[in-house]
Amino acid sequence: MSERLTVSSVDYERILRQLNIANDNRRNLDRQLRAAGERNQKLVTALTKTKNEIEHLRMALAQEVAPPLNSALVLGVHGATMTYQDLAEGKTPAEIEEHLDVLLGGRLVRITCSPLLPIAQVKPGMTVLLNEQTQAVVSLGFEGYGDVVTVREVLDHDHLVVDLPNQSKAVARISGALDPDELRVGDTVTYDSRIQMVTSLVPHTDAQELVLEEVPDVTYDNI
User: Fold this and answer.
1) Is residue 215 part of a domain?
2) Where is the Proteasomal ATPase second OB domain positioned along the sequence (predicted)?
């Protein structure tokens, strides 16, 4: 005869509690899985929306740099310097917000940079392209050409005196392409007369090193 398995009431209650706990855990897991699935779906939707917005923004920005575009020469770069004193003095946004001073069509114009061009990447002497809103959108870098002149005196980090080809002198700006600390009296540089700015350093050649700046007062009798 087979033995009949008997379970005490205590064991029965314990097993029943374990089953209830297991069922509760399963239901909690199901809820967590459903919540995770909903979060994932929301994340996918948000990512898709963001991707579409980025694509629309990219297309809009691409139109910002579509030809035709005007060009301008940068004379000065001014970062944002707003202070409480500026506000108290009633200064205008054109005075305290970041901006560029440029030469555009022979006129001095104050403009801003578009989000496409961080103002920190722009230096005096650069050529920039402008969109329809007259904002700088692209930097073309420095133009290393102009009249060849000689440095006569370095005044400060922004200005120097040069000897022009017509034997006159001029106070010129120093472009962002040059390190003022490396400029020396007698250096040969290029000078852009449109913006009164020294734009590049002309390397000395061996032939230039053999040329005397002054003809010595020596006769054959002295030799």
Assistant:
1) no
2) 148-203
